[in-house]
Structure formats: structure tokens, C-alpha cells
Amino acid sequence: MELEEFLDPQVIKVGMKKNDKKSVLIDLSNVLKNAGYIDDAEIFLEDIYKRESIGITGIGNYIAIPHGKSAAVKKVGVAIGILENEIEWETMDDNGVKVVILFSVGNDPNGAETHLRLLSKVAQRLGNDEVVSSLIESKSVQDVIKSFKTA
Amino acid sequence: MKIVGVCACTVGIAHTYIAKEKLENAAKKRGYDIHLETQGTIGTEDELNAEVVKNADVVILAVDVKIAGMERFEGKRVIKVPTTVAVKSPNKLLDKVEEVLNS
């Protein structure tokens, strides 16, 4: 499976009009639930916040990568939200966040290796400045998917 | 300069791989030779081979957790930082590495 196939248009949102971290996370969790990646958005959110409490997930360059392992996850995936306005987030460069990449990962990696490997590729691309600028400028779901091909 | 290293973060899903990408890009821009292994949820990837480790001038460990295979780096210059340092300021980290090697 290629990275482009793994990126599911069902769980990518552009032009999100949210003004705070919590409402973005709630929205993206519901998107994951509706697409069948998780079965309980509340439990999932709790586990995301558990990871948030360990350390900063705003990696700089307006990107945040909230994640965590949760029993609520049925399928490994990645929800992507491109925000219309910069929001506050705990970040490494003290800027806000314009792109939220929410990983859904179950507690048991067995049987999910292929998808976890693809997830690691998504993370890796986020370390690339060209991919990041292209993501921030994305106006459509296709723009988002194309961004990951930039590098 | 020849660099080898390992990236490993707490959850083993995201920071590990971002740190690798950032460090590799920063090092390549300076014309360094760099090989980074990742230890994450999916296990060890891009495992360092003995020859590459042997020839390395320095070992960079961008790790938040205990990693496997520390014995490979015995007798080497090892610089250990949290993954956030590699993600946040890979260039500063390489500056520091240069400083340590030249001192």
C-alpha cells in the first residue's frame, strides 16, 4: 500500500473554522469515528490528552501531531485538519498551529504493522519543510494528499 | 563528518520519525554522511550496520527512552539529547556536535 492510498479523504478536512485545540480534537475524533477508525470518541480523546500531558505535540512550523495509543481504536489511521485560523497550542517554536494531524493507533501493534509503518512515513514527511508549507496552503483534500508527495 | 545515531521517542509513533527526517536533512545540507536508526512501535528500522558504526566520527542519540543495542557504541563519542531537540533545532544540535568534536 502506498502512502497516498493510506491517506483517506474521508478523514481529511480543509478550511476548518475552529478556534481552540479542544474543539479541533473533538471534531477530528468524530470524523475518525464516523469513518470507522475508532468506536468511542470520548475514550479516544482521553487517551489523546494523556499523551498531551507527557510532552509537547506542536512540533513547530504550525504543525501539531496529537496522538496516543487507545483501546477505542479499531483501525490505524490519520485524520488531518487544515485550519482557517491559527490556534493556540503548546508548541516547540512558540507559534500557534494551523495544521492538526491526529493519529489513531490501537494498543496492540500486532497485525497493524503495515499501517503503522505508513503512519511513520507520514510523521517522517512532517519533518520536511516543503511538505509543511504545502500542507498549510492546502485548500482542498487533494491538495493535502499531494502535499505528502512533495518531498 | 560521519554520523550514526538512533531516534526513539516515548510512544514510538511520531517524534521518532520526525527527528530522523529533520536531522538527516540538516546533516545532508552540510554535506555530512548520516545514518539514523529508528526504534519505535514498529520495531527497529534502518538498523545500523557494524561497518557504518565503526567508521562513524560521532553517535547522536535522539532518545526519550532506553534503547536497544547501546553496546554497539562503546568507545565512541556519544551525544545524547531528547527527541524534541532534534525536532526543534537540528541545526543547533549539529553545531554542538561540531563543537564537541573539535574540542
Outline of the structure:
Chain A is 40% helix and 19% strand.
Fold topology:
The complex is a heterodimer of chains A (151) and B (103).
Chain A: H1 3-6, E1 12-16, H2 21-34, H3 41-54, E2 58-60, E3 63-64, E4 77-87, E5 97-104, H4 113-125, H5 129-136, H6 141-147
Parallel strand pairs in A: 1-4, 3-5
Antiparallel strand pairs in A: 2-3, 4-5
Helix pairs in contact in A: 2-3, 5-6
Chain B: E1 2-8, H1 15-29, E2 33-40, E3 43-45, H2 50-55, E4 58-63, E5 78-81, H3 83-88, H4 90-102
Parallel strand pairs in B: 1-2, 1-4, 4-5
Antiparallel strand pairs in B: 2-3
Q: How would you describe this structure to a colleague?
A:
- The complex is a heterodimer of chains A (about 150) and B (about 100).
- With about 150 residues, chain A is an alpha/beta fold.
- Chain A has helices at about 5, 20-35, 40-55, 115-125, 130-135, 140-145; strands spanning about 10-15, 60, 65, 75-85, 95-105.
- Chain A has a five-stranded mixed beta sheet.
- The mean pLDDT of chain A is about 95.
- Chain B is α/β, with parallel strands linked by helices.
- In chain B, about 40% of the residues lie in helices and about 25% in strands.
- Chain B is built from four helices and five strands; from the N terminus they run E-H-E-E-H-E-E-H-H.
- Chain B has helices at about 15-30, 50-55, 85-90, 90-100, and strands at about 1-10, 35-40, 45, 60-65, 80.
- A five-stranded mixed beta sheet of chain B has the order 3-2-1-4-5.
- Chain B is globular.
- The model of chain B has no long low-confidence stretch (mean pLDDT about 95).
- The interface of A and B includes residues 59, 105, 126, 127 and 129 of A.
